[in-house]
Amino acid sequence: MSKAEVLLVGMIHMAVEPSHVNEEKDEIVKAQQLLERFEPTKVAVEKSYYVEEEMNRRFKAYRSGEIAPAYDEVEQLGFPVAKTLDHQQLYAVDEVIDMSSPTIDGVFEWAKQYQPTLFQDIMKLYQLLLEERQKEASLLGKIKAINDAKYLQTLRKVYMKIAQVGDRQQRVGVNWLKQWHHRDLAIAANILKIAQPGEQILIIIGGDHLPLLQQFLSESDEVELTSLSHYI
């Protein structure tokens, strides 16, 4: 049987940008319908297994019309797609990792104080990412932007700049990236565990995770990655 096909969809976090929910309901419905064209057999989302049972309790209530979806991409996109395709559950693939040793703010503070040129380089790259997102006002436009190959290449550059923050005694940036890699490697492993041959797995995940998830899943040679551009 053929390998499972995986569609990674990098997303903005709607809880952080609630205007998309309030003002772009038609765009959300359109995004749902476009993702349904992939015909996923499973929908996996950026939630940890600690809340998977509660998430699926809410999904059951949503299916029966008891509740409206909350202001996040899991319930605004994941729930409707899974309901339309008559799924009984969603799959939580995120991993709970301590990201505080150091925090990303701590990394930036170090760079700003001790490596100002590097800090400016990082900020310029972040500005490029922000500009790419802001070029598109609509939800679908932003989804396309953060899944674009050029955007993801810039994001990879950011991570490699972060790796250079610190000195030989204090690898500040590397230590943060170890936490980030731990999380994304665990997410990739969780995806592979649920991906059975012949299935089609839709992954709704924060866009910043895409570079490493694409790398890890591709290198596993256990699944086939499909491009979002085929559907949106």
Structure overview:
By secondary structure, this protein is of the alpha/beta class. It has 2 domains: 4-97 and 192-230, no CATH class; 104-178, no CATH class. Helices cover 55% and strands 13% of the residues. It has 10 helices and 5 strands, in the order βααβααβαααααβαβ. It has a 5-stranded parallel sheet with strand order 3-2-4-1-5, with helices on both faces. α5 crosses α6, α6 runs antiparallel to α8 and α9 (172-194) packs across α10. It is globular and about 55 Å long. The protein starts with a strand and ends in a 6-residue tail after the last strand. The mean pLDDT is 96.
Rg, nearest Å = 18 Å
Would you list the SSEs in sequence order as H and E?
Answer: EHHEHHEHHHHHEHE
Number of helices: 10
Beta-strand content bin = 5-15%
The N- and C-terminal alpha carbons lie at a distance of 28 Å
What fraction, in percent, of the residue positions are helical?
40-55%
pLDDT averaged residue by residue:
96
Which word captures the global form?
globular
Q: Give unreliable regions as ranges.
A: none
What order do the strands of the largest sheet run in, or round the barrel if closed? 3-2-4-1-5
- Largest sheet descriptor: 5 strands, parallel
The secondary structure category is alpha/beta
Write down the domain tally. Answer: 2
- Report the count of strand segments: 5
InterPro entries: DUF5694 (IPR043749)
Pfam family, one: DUF5694
Protein name: TraB/GumN family protein
Organism: Halobacillus salinus
